[in-house]
Amino acid sequence: MATLRTRSSKGSALTHAELDANFKRTVTQKTTTYSVIVSDNRSIIEGNHATTAFTITLGDAATMAAAETGDFEVTITNINAAIVTVAPAGANTIDGAATNLTLGKNASVTLQVISAQTGYKSISSLSGDITPTIFTPTVNVDTGSVTLTAGFDSLAHIKTGRIVHIQGKLTFTSVSSPTGRLQITDLPFTVSNLTDGAGEANCPVWGKSWDTALAGQLTARFAEGGTTLQFLDIDTAGTETEIGAKIASGTEIFIAGQYITD
Questions:
Q1: pLDDT tens string 163-220
Q2: How far apart are CA 162 and CA 145, in angstroms?
Q3: How, if at all, do strands 73-78 and 44-47 pair?
Q4: Average pLDDT over residues 5-24
Q5: Strands 217-222 and 201-203
Q6: pLDDT single digits (tens) 60-86
Q7: Distance between the two ends of the chain, CA-based, in angstroms?
Q8: Alpha-carbon distance 79 to 56, whole Å?
């Protein structure tokens, strides 16, 4: 599950416990669960069975740091396993959240104890192979209604850490006197509400076949603290116009953007 620890990697002589741990690592560990221990510092822990899901539980951050003079890190990697789940110990956090980290096939992450010793932070990662999730968004306007075309009513999303990427094409098959805002109201994850509006994000979009021509450029905005993506028409003076009334039967909107989630 982990690499051997050496005097060179540690920088000092090994303890008897570390020598014992090295001996144990020379034997194949047929287990789907593993708890990270102090002697795993600077080690690589692998999940490597194609049909098996692994769970790796991190050691308590304060305990790891105390044993290693505040300097503890471990790399966890998925070598073609079904999935590898990395779980924090107790009330510890991973990248500020008390939630598990999931590694898809060929993904890896190096985690380091944070200075407060209350959890870990990612200091490097490799996304590996990620399968997009397909979802059918709820698209509505303030008044009236719009209906998406079957077969062109879904988007794809991928979540990597706290970054969510969405993309796809939406086509409208019918409308009934739409006005006001056009928006997706159920994004797959909440947009983070960060300091000074840092969670706000613009989403590149393109569209065609409008009921009436746009005054400027089509854009879309991820709103902080919610699950809404609103579409807007922005002219050269920076004036924003809601586009509900511009949707017609046959209007197409292409989306590709990303945001930070909690």
A1: 899 999 999 999 999 999 999 999 988 999 999 999 999 998 999 999 999 999 999 9
A2: 33
A3: parallel
A4: 55
A5: antiparallel
A6: 999 999 988 878 999 999 888 888 999
A7: 31
A8: 14
pLDDT of residue 25: 47
What distance lies between CA 188 and its chain's CA centroid?
11
Domain boundary among 69, 100, 126: 126
- Hey, what amino acid is at 64? M
HSE-CB of 191 using CA atoms within 13 angstroms = 27
The contacts found for 187-190 with CB under 8 angstroms, 24 or more apart, are: 187/137, 187/222, 187/227, 187/228, 187/229, 187/259, 188/133, 188/135, 188/157, 188/159, 188/164, 188/227, 189/159, 189/164, 189/227, 189/261, 189/262, 190/225, 190/226, 190/227, 190/261, 190/262
Mean pLDDT calculated for residue range 156-165: 84
Same domain as 39, residue 141? no
Say if strands 133-135 and 155-160 run parallel, antiparallel, or are unpaired. Answer: antiparallel
Residue 1, domain member (yes or no): no
Amino acid at 156: A
Considering the domain boundaries, does residue 147 fall inside one?
A: yes
CA distance 155 to 131: 13
Residue 90, both tokens: 């107790």
How far CA 196 is from CA of 58, 123, 158, 193, 201, in Å, comes to: 33, 25, 26, 9, 13
Range of the domain at 153: 133-260
- Side chain identity at 100, as an amino acid letter? N
Q: Whole-angstrom Cα distance, residue 34 to residue 21?
A: 13
